[in-house]
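Hey, can you fold this?
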Amino acid sequence: MAEAKENGTTELVFLIDVSAPMADFASDIIAGFNGMIAQLRETKEDILVTTWQFADVGLFIDERVPIDAGSAPLEEDFFDRMRIMREQLARQHSDPIEQVTNRGERGLINAIGGVVCRAKYVYRHYPENPARTMMIIITGGTDHASLYYWTPDQLRDLIERQEKETGWEFVFLGANIDALQAAGDLGIPVENAVAFDCDSTGIRENFASLGAMILAFSSTGVVPPRWSQKISEHLAKKSARI
């Protein structure tokens, strides 16, 4: 858990699942993310945003973009561009293990490990670093495409080391998955994890709740309790109707 800090830059690293079923709500993800960015921009907080997407492979869109920059939001053709990039990447690899084969494949473990390592590299090589860093993982299901690179145990060790040595915070939002169990298996505190309903309202609520939580985190370096209450309430209401 990050030490409370009241000054300095906040770094946000987003890792967003674009495989099915998340891809079916592309417009809601784009609108929710961009609305959150707009809300944070109005606060004049000193925030840097790095955005990654993943399905069977992970690709980054922007790295350490200031919140007041026009390039921080996701563009309307975000999902289409990412799909094309993954298809191009697949054609460049002769190894069938690395080929992009299905829009529903999800390499969650590999994606998290790769993004954490990249963030560590950037952290080491920048002349100045933020006062606090938070990595936010949003996934629509379990991992079923991480064939190698990282094991769950290796990833847990990596995350716990970053939490302990650098004070990074990790936040996990998962649909169609036991999010608390999945987060705990990765070394992410269960209070930083929440299950969400993968529908239009649920996805938009994710970003509304994240925006409020990030605002508090950027001021104090601490994740506020009950930050995920509205996300859980929406999921409970949806489950009660089924």
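Oh, and this one too while you're at it.
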Amino acid sequence: MPKPFTTIVPPSFKAASETYQYAPAVRIGDQILISGIVGVDAEGRLPPDFRSQTEDFRSQTENIFTTLEAILSEVGATLDDVASLNSYHVGDLHSQLRELVDIKATRIRPPHPAWTGVGVTQLGVPGALLEISAVVVARD
């Protein structure tokens, strides 16, 4: 029996998708569910260590939004279609939330999506400070 959803696996995610047995996104009707994204670059590496955790966080966050945009482009969506974000933070939650608000303001226009930010002790990628998942409303 076919599954009630369609997987979305951009070519650059194929190897990781097979290795970790996940889909970067799935489409169910008019909703697109985006798996958690950590702040690795196009080669799958975290940004080089900076002198401050704030710089690391900012760089990882920018990478996450770039990756999210790449996934969304596969289905003809943009950041304007994001209805909900969940963010998972390792480190100083309150300063990271303020930093994420500043970065989101440059990437996502009002009206703002729903957002939940949670502090955690660790993520699946050692050194990752942030992971974001999203729910997107498809345009078609």
